[in-house]
Write a structure and sequence with these properties.
IUNH; alpha/beta; two-stranded antiparallel sheet; hydrolase; 12 helices; Inosine-uridine nucleoside N-ribohydrolase; purine nucleosidase activity; Inosine/uridine_hydrolase_dom; 9-stranded mixed β-sheet
């Protein structure tokens, strides 16, 4: 069993990934931490509680950061064109959800949970990396106690999605991402190189919903706005971003990877760009020297990923 803390900003694709984590037989979802990004921290935390309630998820929810790790960074607007005004595709969601939050801030929940389960916890982060960076700043020693970190973010050999060179999660807090990617723990980066070519059609999701229970039907409903957004890039379907990171946890064999130290550009025209220095390549001394080698996904068996997602969502 993989003990997973899911760091998320729900978010439509975040919702699919959450249901995947909840239902996969090899995953023990032990916590959900929220982060701002696809919507405000108030909205993403409300959405996490809403999905927890609707899908009977026992994992506690801890509220995370509401600003970037560098508070002087100017906040960019919420991507309402992608995820809707409420972050969940404009389905009906109550203003408040009558469920308790864990009393700790997300970064403290991460620290305490990792220390209580040394060597056992995988952090799956599919939004901005602020909570993870705050945890590292507060308690750097947890890097040695985490089993693995899997993030959805970045792009290396394909264009970005919020600028020609940057992916949204990294671009949303580049300083935090650079802290996470240069820390002495194992990070697997599941970025646009694989998620932009892993697409799920409207009909494929609808067929799963027709066969599935209320949870899958609701997932199908909240995904329609998101699918409509992707009409410019996908033929009547959507890119499966966050669920790819979750699939990696249980089926890494479906991905092709390289290893190398990774840095994030912080500021300037390439703000948020992720750059890997592949292991075995020699360069003059530079800012990548002496940093840990991380895992970067560069290829994926997309059809098998989609099939595993569907099979897992249909488990009850």
């Amino acid at each position: 069993m993989h003990k997973v803390i899911y760091d998320t900003d729900p978010g439509v694709d975040d919702a699919m990934a959450l249901l995947f984590l909840h239902r996969h037989p090899d995953i023990d979802l032990i916590g959900i931490t929220t982060i701002f990004g696809n919507a405000s921290i108030k909205a993403t935390t409300r959405n996490a509680l809403f999905l927890k309630r609707e899908w009977n998820i026992p994992a506690p929810v801890a509220k995370g950061a509401s600003i970037t790790i560098d508070p002087s960074r100017e906040e960019i607007g919420w991507p309402t064109l992608v995820h809707g005004d409420n972050g969940l595709g404009n389905i009906e969601v109550p203003e408040t959800v009558d469920l308790p939050l864990d009393p700790r801030p997300a970064y403290r929940f991460i620290i305490d949970t990792v220390r209580a389960n040394p060597g056992e916890v995988t952090l799956v982060a599919v939004g901005r990396m602020t909570n993870l960076a705050l945890a590292l700043k507060e308690d750097p020693e947890i890097a040695k106690l985490v089993k693995a970190v899997v993030i959805m973010g970045g792009n290396f050999y394909v264009p970005g999605n919020v600028s020609p060179v940057a992916e949204a999660n990294i671009h949303g807090d580049p300083e935090a991402a650079d802290i996470v990617l240069t820390a002495p723990w194992e990070v697997t980066v599941v970025g646009l190189d694989v998620t932009s070519i892993t697409t799920m059609s409207r009909s494929y999701l609808a067929a799963a919903a027709a066969k599935g229970d209320k949870a899958v039907k609701m997932l199908n409903d909240l995904s329609q706005f998101y699918i409509d957004f992707y009409m410019h890039a996908v033929d009547d379907g959507m890119m499966v971003h966050d669920s790819c990171a979750c699939v990696y946890v249980v089926a890494p064999e479906l991905f092709t990877t390289i290893t190398g130290s990774v840095r994030v550009v912080c500021g300037g025209i390439a703000d948020g760009q992720t750059i890997v220095k592949p292991d075995g390549r020699r360069f003059p001394p530079g800012k990548w020297d002496g940093l840990p080698s991380q895992i970067v996904c560069t290829g994926v068996e997309s059809e098998k990923v989609n099939d595993l997602i569907r099979e897992t969502l249909l488990r009850v």
